[in-house]
Design a protein that fits this description.
Length: about 280
């Protein structure tokens, strides 16, 4: 799902957290210090260590504190807590296997420290900060996918999304009939229908533009008005859709269509329909 776009020096972003958007700037980190990418990959999903995370009274340390992603997702953690070092360390605090799966080491407190890890197997993985061990977060990884005529859809929680267990699920739409690369802009038209596929059942539709070989779109359980934002990085990475309609048990149809490639409409329609069920 991802392409190698980084060499021995990784150009990654100085972070601007504003409705989930992160802008790429020329901040470099040598592989083997802040990074453990084998091979190096362009990240899909951003997690922030928020300002004030070192304080016990902080509502969060890592945000989001729990995510659900498909196998193969590369997650990048950014230390946005100015003046405070942190770590991203697998396992629970004090566990005998803590840090055996991944461990960032101490992320700098005076620069936008960044750490990446690709989750290549399914399972539920806790992680914590060694320096502030009262903070624990989690990544749930799923290997479920559906293939149709033109797309493959990978599910962060599988085709049945338990809203009580997971507030978020990352979907990754990958075109399978197009020779895409990591640089050509592609526009996707994503529409969602709730409990039926008539026009009256349409609850969301938007064009998402990205560069790369897939479209990551995270669905977020919401109780307020529907909003979408992203991508996490400049021109690439996950978009996010927080939907007031995503709060109860329902059956959804999701259509994915290629609207444009490098600014031009395809010669013929490239579209598939997928299903997602939510349960509470």
């Amino acid at each position: 799902m991802h392409n190698n776009r980084l060499s021995t020096v990784v150009l990654i972003s100085a972070v601007v957290i504003s409705t989930g958007f992160i802008t790429i700037a020329n901040v470099s980190a040598q592989l083997g210090s802040m990074y453990s990418m084998q091979p190096a990959e362009w990240p899909t999903y951003a997690v922030s260590i928020i300002p004030g995370a070192a304080q016990r009274e902080s509502a969060f340390h890592y945000y989001p504190p729990a995510i659900a992603v498909p196998v193969g997702t590369n997650v990048a953690w950014f230390n946005n807590d100015a003046g405070q070092p942190h770590t991203v360390t697998s396992g629970l605090p004090g566990a005998s296997d803590a840090g055996s799966m991944f461990n960032s080491g101490v992320m700098p407190a005076t620069a936008p420290g960044v750490y990446q890890y690709t989750f290549d197997r399914a399972g539920d993985f806790a992680y914590h900060c060694i320096i502030h061990p009262w903070r624990v977060a989690a990544v749930s990884v799923n290997d479920a996918f559906a293939a149709s005529n033109n797309f493959e859809l990978a599910y962060g929680t599988g085709p049945v999304w338990n809203l009580t267990k997971d507030f978020r699920t990352l979907l990754i739409f990958t075109p399978t009939t197009l020779p895409l690369d990591s640089f050509t802009p592609v526009a996707y038209n994503i529409s969602m229908y709730k409990d039926g596929t008539s026009a009256d059942n349409k609850v969301f539709s938007r064009i998402f533009a990205t560069t790369g070989v897939d479209l990551p779109l995270e669905l977020i359980k919401g109780s307020n008005d529907t909003r979408s934002y992203g991508p996490d990085f400049s021109g690439t990475g996950a978009y996010h859709l927080e939907g007031s309609f995503l709060n109860d048990s329902a059956d959804y149809a999701i259509t994915a269509e290629i609207a444009a490639i490098n600014g031009k409409s395809p010669d013929s329609q490239i579209m598939d329909e997928f299903r997602l069920q939510t349960v509470t």
